[in-house]
Design a protein that fits this description.
Chain lengths: 221, 221
């Protein structure tokens, strides 16, 4: 019996990591579609969204299955609940990748306006946060998860800087307002992916330590 | 024993609805802070965020407690998992309300630029979606939940229209770029609140019908 639930929990983790791989790939491809002005890669992101959505449903079904079959202890319950939440975050990361891919398609229709300010740098940090959040999950590595949380401010600062530069650019030349605005939306999408990676890292700390780090200001008993 | 778990599930629902009330109030106040240029209400939203965060942690603790104490059937498991996800959505709605309240504070420092285009209308629809998603939860009302989903496109269209109008406005007068951009960010925040209300409505349908409506394109067995 014990073996049985361990096997189910392991399978659940494996499927979640597979889903994580799909979401990472979607983000990476969507960013490349913008930066390399590559319509084909943008199309691929849109085509592959279904796989992420199917995986989300499969994982939610497995979560219900595991909880219905086994009376788990608190530590394992926290793990299963974290999987359920991380599953949601990964699906929403996939949605953000789709938004970026669609922005890429719009941007391709305009003449290229300008180097993409700090968007490549912001993408790199956000992709690193996703990768490390998933690695922290695999290794139950709280230190790595903490390092993801600590990068969130950096992402917010880069976003503000990108906003400022693009708004200044728009003020100087009203003909670039629309393409520059698509880059602003891309920065918003990347910020949101960083938020989801942060949520995943918080969930890893939650299930490893049984400690909630989401609201440090709240007095925890 | 049976009574016992029903009592726990009911308490869980009551607390979630209390949290829903806090989130609704935060959104309503944040929107009023912008539309009425009211610094005091903006401050109140920031002060009340802690209560939402504390409630999120309490509800997550209750979810673990209920699952640890009772071996639930699939229908009740789906309800508890939905509560856990809705709890997350409500907390993130609270975050969006904080963002809007902070935008209100920035906007107050600029001279008032223009009537707020369709932002009052968009706010009204989004607040209605939240209210009805929570009412659908109380009444297990799938038809009402469906009506929330059907409003999502309307919100996206309003958002696009608000973007277009504000961008045109910015193109005509570069001195309004910053205050107009804060209104654009507010439209993004409202859109995201609408997304969370949609997620809540989907979760209501999921636990009432045992049917996943999140990805209609996916072939469900």
């Amino acid at each position: 019996m014990e073996r049985h639930f361990e096997k189910d929990l392991n399978e659940l983790k494996e499927r979640l990591l597979w889903m994580g791989g799909l979401a990472e790939r979607a983000v990476h491809q969507a960013v490349q579609a913008v930066l390399n002005a590559d319509e084909q890669i943008a199309q691929r992101v849109l085509a592959e969204e279904t796989a992420i959505n199917e995986m989300q449903i499969e994982i939610d079904d497995r979560v219900v299955h595991v909880l219905a079959l086994h009376q788990l202890m608190a530590v394992d319950l926290r793990f299963v609940l974290a999987v359920s939440r991380i599953n949601n975050d990964l699906e929403r990361i996939g949605d953000q990748a789709v938004n970026i891919a669609q922005a890429a398609q719009r941007i391709l229709r305009h003449p290229r306006v300008k180097p993409y300010v700090d968007l490549p740098k912001m993408s790199e940090i956000v992709e690193g946060m996703m990768r490390d959040a998933l690695n922290a999950l695999v290794r139950r590595d709280v230190v790595l998860a903490q390092s993801v949380l600590s990068r969130d401010d950096q992402v917010d600062n880069l976003r503000d800087q990108i906003f400022r530069e693009l708004l200044t650019y728009m003020m100087g030349d009203s003909s670039v307002v629309y393409p520059a605005f698509d880059l602003i939306l891309m920065a918003k999408n990347l910020e949101r992916i960083g938020d989801h990676a942060t949520n995943i890292a918080e969930d890893v700390i939650y299930f490893v330590q049984g400690r909630d780090v989401r609201h440090p200001a709240v007095d925890r008993r």
